[in-house]
Hints:
By secondary structure, the protein is α+β, with helices and mostly antiparallel strands. Helix content is 28%, strand content 30%. It has helices at 25-29, 47-60, 69-80, 131-136, 159-170, 213-224, 236-240, 272-287, and strands spanning 5-8, 11-14, 32-40, 43-44, 88-95, 118-125, 138-144, 175-180, 183-187, 191-196, 199-203, 228-232, 244-249, 253-260, 263-264.
Amino acid sequence: MKNSKVFLNNKFLNLSEAKISPLDRGFIFADGVYELIPFFQDKAFLLDKHLLRLNKNLSEMKIENIYSNDEWRSYINKLISYYDYTNFYVYIQVSRGAPKHEEEVLRQHHYYNEMEPTIFMYVSEINLLPEDKIRKGFSCVTLDDLRWGMCNIKSISLAYNALAKNYAKEREAFETVFVKKGIITEGSSSNIFIVKDNVFYTPQLNNYVLPGITRGYVIEEIKNLDYQIQEIDISIDLLEKADEAFLTNSTQFLVPISSLNKKIIGSGQAGKYSCELYEKFKKISRYS
Length: 288
């Protein structure tokens, strides 16, 4: 990674040359948002929807978006031209920036409206999960959802998510599923779906559920296949009794859940509906 190209504030640099002020509010306050755009077979997957969410999140955080969508696309295309990956993602982080003037207090909670955002992008390869492991499914654990109350914004404030991901790793599980007052919200880096009696269910969107881009795509695919899907509150009991369950995220698309807290879900492997949706993803990521 020493000489990998990155983008920082209108410049393409080697990673070792990229410098950000230690007074940047992204570093001091986690005051910023991020976006992760997957590319499969060297083609952006749902780029417009990712940029739309980035624009929306920046607006909600009152951080100026200084680029048009065309400018974002141009910078992204230039950055990925330095790489020859097949499946990869572009990570975008936009923080509120650093104080401009020496006389300003170095650390204070309120911010100045004239601050210029810090924009950073890098590229990383996606290593897709082996198909045999997908078919077997993955174990998950649960944890109380103690995150801040604006999880619908893709904030860089991910300390609790990181703790939760490590919680799963320590228990040899793939993912931690958050539970708030007995209701499933989402995974530490994923959305969740279940199937019960041939009907799909996923948590309804609220301030504790990120409107995942892949989540939205999967919902539309389910409808295109003429299956029923409902966005509802999913209790931990309903999840445990599901016929099958799976996670969605940007880099792996769909990950079947075989067990939760060491309790078998459904058949204990990927269900038929999970496999059907996974087959559609294979056409995007492995063959096209």
